[in-house]
Amino acid sequence: MITDPRPSLDLAPIGNCAISALIDRSGRFVWACAPRVDGDPVFSALMDGDAPDHGFWSVELDGLKRVDQAYVRNTPVLRTVLTAEDGAAVEIIDFAPRHLKHGRTYRPLAFGRIIRPLAGSPRVTIRLRPAADWGGRRAEATSGSNHIRYICADLTMRLTTDCPVSHVLAERTFRLERPYSFFLGPDEGYDQEVGPGVQAALDRTVAYWRNWVRTLYIPLDYQEAVIRAAITLKLCVHEETGAIVAALTTSVPEFPESGRNWDYRYCWIRDAYYTVRALNRLGAVDILENYLVYLRNLVDDAQGGHVQPVYGVGLEPGIGERIVESVEGYRGMKPVRVGNQAHEHLQHDVYGQIVLPLVQSFYDSRLIRPGTVDDFHALERVGERAFAMHDQTDAGLWEFRTIARVHVYSSVMCWAACDRLAKAADHLGLRERAETWRDRADIIRERIERESFLPDEGRFAASFGGRELDASLLQLVDLGFLDALDPRQVATFDAIERDLKKGAYLFRYVEPDDFGEPETAFNFCTFWFIEALHQNGRIEEAREIFQEMLSHRTHAGLLSEDLALETNELWGNYPQTYSLVGIINCAVLLSRSWTDVR
Rounded CA gap, 320 and 508, in Å? Predict the structure, then answer.
């Protein structure tokens, strides 16, 4: 197939937990930020309208007829095959090196690319045009006999290659008669022969990822979907600090011309909580353990006070939001935002989302660093904050910018913080502290039930004193606040299905917000609905909707944040960790048991 030249989310990520890139169906790098995921884009074409002049890295084949693309099995190594009208064919292998070297993980800020002739006499043109100043200009280039330096905004990158450098500089069309290797990384000398060096890095990278996948406990069914989601969630980890970003992109609108264009390249405590829970179900303890380090640092910094809902991947509290005018936006849709105003919000659910992952460290014998009594006492300060904030207004998990309510989801998360601290205290033999936290959990429960239950409808509202619904009420079961068959929860589920479900898909809410009425379904909420169907015994219906959701994945096996009902087109930032978490959770829930086949 030949792909539509317009920007699309049908993209394949590669990465190594230090750097990542998105590659389109033609094998073109269209998005990558450096030196961190929240940095200036080195490749910016995704955010620069329909015909960007720079911000990409393409390999163009004369007479192109067909493009085939897929990952190397159980890896984020991407293979693209370009075939011409006359049968000439080229293979492109793209990856970010990740493997053991000198006893530690080697994850350079670098991409490897190998281009090989497969058939005939292919003629290709290589266009490497990194961007600078938020896509505002083409990066300045200088060159040597075997390298080209690109002076970008926040770093200088060096291409080392055994391809004639002048072919790249002049974008000269040439016959590809042998393989060529490219290493685009830090501005330092490449200390080995580039062809064998890049091939060795590729082989070791493939081996690393296949070995990591072998450690996962996966369900019997839906294995391909689960493995791809797990690998991609790992690509959203900034391993140096343990942070997990919500997505790799900024400013892909939630629906066309909506203005709902947000920067998701930061670590939301909420999103990361759901990510580590899903990966923990698969036994990916490495990501959990590294994220707990990130959380403990946040707990120390907060000193028992306010915790933001979102931080930079380096624990930075200040990620001020601004609009850049140097690029045209996704499909020309502005604004393009850098930073996120949500760091200024009050979102009280974060206290539960800090406590719940960290309490696992008191139980889990696999961890290199189990939780200590001192850790528990430090975590109690977060619990104190949860108790103090459980009945205070906030922006809620949907991050309303002009609406403040006492959101039930936030209150239930504060309850969960106290409830889990009570259980952890019991486990640690701290009986008095267990009683204290049980009493506080009971106080919060009583307040939630009194302020948000609607006797006339037999259901819960989404806020204290309100009547509105939102999909987060489905989480009351998952958090242990209510049993799935509690009549109050059944009535809440029925109301959500009646008012928030459109076709097979679920909206977060349907009331107008700061930007008007929502127009797209929120993929993570649809997965919550699938879980709720299963809890209510409607298992075949849950499976049908799950299969439908899987059918909307990109060719890379991934989802963004939102889905348009009429066109089934994906919108919102990509790849979205929430949506990938939903794939894993529902697959585990709906799969047959391994005991069925062995």
Answer: 26
Which pLDDT does position 4 carry in this prediction?
60
Q: How far apart are the first and last CA of the chain?
A: 40
Cβ atoms of residues 458 and 491 within 8 Å: yes
Reported as a single tens digit per residue, the pLDDT across 543-561 is 999 999 999 999 999 999 9
Strands 123-129 and 174-175: antiparallel
One-character DSSP codes across 256-298: TT-S---B--SEEHHHHHHHHHHHHHTT-HHHHHHHHHHHHHH
Give the contacts of 135 (CB within 8 A, at least 6 positions apart): 41, 44, 47, 48, 52, 54, 55, 324, 326, 327
Q: How many CB atoms lie within 10 A of CB 136?
A: 17
Burial 407-433 (b: 16+ CB within 10 A, else e): bbbbbbbbbbbbbbbbbbbeebebeeb
Q: Where are the alpha helices (DSSP H) in 215-254?
A: 223-235
Task: Kindly compute the dihedral angle of the four CA atoms of residues 289, 225, 270, 280, in this order, to the nearest 10 degrees.
Answer: -30
Residues in the chain: 598
CA 262 to centroid of chain Cα atoms? 14
- Residue 514: pLDDT band (50, 70, 90) is confident
Beta strands in 18-122 (DSSP E): 20-23, 29-34, 40-43, 56-61, 64-71, 78-84, 89-95, 99-101, 104-106, 111-119
- What is the H or E stretch that residue 384 is in? helix 373-389
Which SS3 state, helix, strand or coil, does residue 54 take?
coil
Percent of the chain at pLDDT exceeding 90: 92
Cis peptide before 575 (omega within 30 of 0): yes
Distance CA 137, CA 539 (A): 53
- Chain-wide mean pLDDT for the chain? 96
Residue 441 has pLDDT above 80, yes or no: yes
Structure token digits, residue 595? 């005991």
Give 122's DSSP letter: -
What's the whole-model pTM score? 0.97
